[in-house]
Structure prediction request, 235 residues.
Amino acid sequence: MAQPAYLKVKLLIEEEIKSLVPNAMIQSERDLAMKYDVSRMTARKAIEELIKEGKLYRKEKVGTFVADNKLHEPVAELVGFTSEIISKGMKPHTKVVDYDIIIADERIAHHLEIKVGDKVHSLLRLRMADDRPMTLEHNYIPLSVIKELPRSVIHRSIYAYLDQELNVKIASGTQMVTAIKADELVAGLLEVPLNDPLIYMELTSVLMNGQVLEFVETYANPQNYKVMIHSRRKW
Prediction:
């Protein structure tokens, strides 16, 4: 049985991008179609397959680029975004979308194990690597645990601030991972199409004294991000 045309083009593009650096823009669908003498639909399908495999990523209204190594989120470990990005040889950057002190509703109070009406830091941040949007994080931290979050801190690693400056130690965390469709706000910030599938994570982290430190909602583009689970058999 003959190999589909789009798979042949996919293999050709895959071989070609091996010589390109991460985040380099590849040729347009039109140029690739002309280069390999196929239809634009065939070129598009080949590109989409490589995007699904995490070898390319697309920026709306800009173009298609060579992907670098995906970020790994180890479920069994609490790894801060800044540390993870630096370990991959990339430059981390944080854009604060919104910060406010809010009153906890039933949902937030439940996750933080506080009373409805208690005051909470609400921090929405876009986390970037080499100026590319990677995740959108919404942190909720009770004022009863951390009274102040200085402006300088919300633009960098909160974990480093807690550990190095406040000597606050995180003992453990519980994380839930699922899929969700990108709404208008999230799609715009992560630069993905509306209703595109995203990785959605909820994390509740706990201090050494058993007090809940934070509840975090994270939205991640699966083209740039994957979740890695370490399992161990229980005897």
Notes: Residues 5-17 form the longest helix (13 residues). Confidence is low (pLDDT under 50) at residues 71-79.
